[in-house]
Amino acid sequence: MKLNFKTREAMVGYLFAAPIIITILIFTIYPVFAGLYYSFTNYQPTEAQKFNMTFVPEESVSFHLGVFPDEEGLVKNELLSLFDPVTFLTLDMGVKLNAEQKEAVSSFLDTDKIVEDFLAGRLNSSVSVKDFMKEYMSSKSELFTRYVPEFVGLKNFREMFKDQYFWISLKNAFVYSIVVVPIQTLLAILLAVAANMKIMGQRFFKTVFFLPSISSSAAISMIFWLIYSKPGVLNRFLSTFGFQAVDWLNEPNTALGAIMVMNIWTTAGYFMITFLAALQSIPSSIYEASQLDGAKFWKTFWKITVPLLRPQMLFVSIMGIIGCLQVFDQIYFLIKNMRNITISYYIYKNAFEYHRMGYASAIAMVLFLIIFAITALQRKLIKEESYF
Amino acid sequence: MIIAYVVLILYAVVSLFPFLWSAIVSLTPMRYTENGVTTGTDIMKWPPEINLFKWPPEFFGAPATGENYVQVFKITPYARWILNTIIYAALVTIGHLIFDALGGYAFARLRFPLRDLWFALFLATLMIPGHVTLIPNYNLMVRFGFVNTYYGLFLPKLTGVFGIFLMRQFFMGIPREMEEAARIDGASIIKTYFKVVLPISKPAISALAIYIFVGTWNDFLWPLLMTSRKEMFTLTVGLDFYRTSYYTYWQYMMAASIMMTIPMIIIFLIFQRQFIDTGVSSGVKG
User: Fold this and answer.
1) Tell me, what's the ipTM?
2) Which DSSP state fits B38?
3) Any idea which UniProt keywords this protein has (chain A) (predicted)?
4) Residue to substitute from B88, B135, B208, interface A, most A β-carbons within 10 A
5) Cα separation of A334 and A365, whole Å?
6) Which of A241, A354, B68, B205 has the most CB atoms around its CB within 10 Å?
7) pLDDT at A90 over 90
8) Is the pLDDT score of A289 beyond 70?
9) Closest residue, chain A, to B1 (C-alpha)
10) For A157-387, which CATH superfamily applies?
């Protein structure tokens, strides 16, 4: 059978595109919806583990009934009348239950069988909660095999608006972007303009300025931890000008600023390359004309260079804002003070340190909305740009 | 002109100083013996008593030594961390090389149903911040049992929208004539791709490879989540090992930092051109 070219092209097309399509579906699209779902629940990963916990049923039953299985004179019916399923699970097995599970336990836990096996000494080997419930629930045992987080509606979002750390971390992320982005952009342009003059060693300067941006944020954070430490080299250097030593990273008023400076240092050289490439494509006749007029450097800079670099500036600042709003690594390594955290770090902290993934997902959704709005704005601005 | 030199040289010093300072600290011995008395070296000493006109040079009044670089391998499984990082970065890079090029070609040249819809979807995913997908992805890996394995590290990262865009852009820029000629000669699409398209794509593919390798080498957040046993740490995650709440082993930490940075600097120096091409020019167009 010979397929026509169009069909073959479509098949090969899907074959080639399959890896990226599958990856995006599994690791981006599914997570967005899962995250949206989590954000309306009280998802707690520690709770998800509870059904895999193992325990020895005999011990729990002993605790519950206050008797040992090998005691003499035990009467099954007497023990049965003492058996309270909900207390047994919550206190003696140590499993937290929601309302639905409590109801299922009180109606379907086969206490008769448990007591019988207890007396026969069949409960003395350790077993997971999941398997135990499968064995001894006459119905609805599926409630205990998979952890289903409780749906809490907008509770996470309501909590967020009252949570001071949410507001602090959000504010810090914004302050961070608003300070870092203009300074790094301007610094990058200045460096690019300087490097674009007919100077020796342009290649050397390009290489040196680029170095910080290829080093890992982890290593850079550690290096700056050394430099910023109280007895460290920065304070020593400043003390020669008569400044007092400051514990830059532990002082709530300076910590975020110190990290901003570090971030500017890391990225200014990288963005300089963008601007340098753009500058080199600007015909030098424009500059020559302005020099003949005797225009001063700054005037040329503000009137000619900056306007010509507008598209690159727009690109760099939008990318910069999106990146800065999500700053994480540096905060993780260097900030020990809850007053100086940023939003992505607060998401991490909630999800992986407080084990409140539902709440963390809700915050992540808010971050998503913010970034979405900024990107939409970017699209609009760049579209306008192309009309010029 | 002079101002330009002053600005550039000043900023070059600012750029290099943190690296130089950490290199100096990394070469300072933890303790040294002088006249039979052993003392700990104070790397916060001021002035730092640097003497380069001696062999070995002196930093903080102590003779320089490579000992810290050896110690790092002894007190932490640093060799294993290097291996983990290489495996992680290499697998991710290989994945991108294969899948980004394939996908990029499909979206640049081949017509298949729903192509534009998929592409629009990919564009949209660029707006999603990493922290939104982080938690579900982590749970997915927990459910698969991939935490503390290489699968957990590299599987979600084997291909990505950025690389697809880059390769698509590149393929759209090459003339169609060669592919058409090959097809007229009776070559299948797959054969055309491997025999005609790939060989002329080396510059774009190598630029992508370098970009991805460096990015993965320096990646921190995902390895932090995926590894809890120290045998599985990558270099970035392991770096936190040299400090406790009470004490920081500055020399070891700086030695470890320098060692993980040097390979990137070497790669950068060799492939400067590709670096400066990918990161920037492609982004401006996108």
Assistant:
1) 0.91
2) E
3) Cell membrane, Membrane, Sugar transport, Transmembrane, Transmembrane helix, Transport
4) B135
5) 26
6) B68
7) no
8) no
9) A197
10) MetI-like (1.10.3720.10)
Q: Which of helix, strand or coil describes residue B235?
A: helix
CA angle B267–A224–A210, rounded 5-degree value: 30
CA atoms of B214 and A310, how far apart (whole Å):
29
Bond prior to B47 in cis (omega within 30° of 0): yes
Residue B201's SS3 state is: coil
Contact status of B122 with chain A (Cβ, < 8 Å): yes
CB A356 within 8 A of CB A350: yes
Task: Judge contact between A51 and A147, C-beta under 8 A.
Answer: yes
How far apart are the C-alpha atoms of A40 and A208, rounded to whole Å? Answer: 49
Strand, coil or helix: A137 = strand
User: Sign of the C-alpha dihedral, residues A40, A41, A46, A51?
Assistant: negative
pLDDT confidence band for A150 (50 / 70 / 90): confident
Nearest CB neighbour to A10, from listed B111, B190, B265: B111
**CA distances from residue B182 to A16, A62, B143, B175, B192 in whole angstroms, order as listed:** 19, 80, 47, 13, 6
Of A4-13, A63-72, A258-267, B238-247, highest mean pLDDT: A258-267
Upstream peptide bond of B56 is cis (omega within 30 degrees of 0): yes
Question: Per the CB < 8 Å rule, is A223 touching B19?
Answer: yes
d(CA B136, CA A34): 6
C-alpha closest to that of A368 among A23, A21, A33, A22 = A33
CB contact under 8 A, A17 and B103: yes
What is the per-residue pLDDT for B44? 84
B227 contact A CB<8A: no
B251: closest CA among B37, B94, B91, B40? B40
DSSP structure class, residue B278: I
Contact status, residue A184 vs residue A262, Cβ threshold 8 Å: no
Are the CB atoms for A259 and A206 separated by under 8 Å? no
Which of B5, B16, B280 is nearest residue A277 as measured by Cβ atoms? B280
- A223 at B interface, C-beta within 8 A: yes
CB within 8 Å of A133: residues ≥ 6 apart: A51, A141, A144, A145
Residue A176 has pLDDT above 50, yes or no: yes
Domain spans of chain A, in order of start? 5-38, 50-144, 157-387
Residue A6 near residue B112 (C-beta atoms within 8 A): no
Smallest Cα distance from B35 to chain A, Å: 28
Q: Is the dihedral of CA B163, B165, B169, B174 positive or negative?
A: positive
**How many inter-chain contacts (A to B, CB under 8 Å) are there?**
268
Q: How far apart are CA A135 and CA A350, in angstroms?
A: 36
Neighbours of B97 (CB within 10 A): 19
Average pLDDT over residues B139-158: 93
Q: B280, A328: Cβ pair inside 8 Å?
A: no
Q: What is the structure's pLDDT at A290?
A: 66
* E strand segments, A101-157: 127-128
pLDDT, position A387: 42
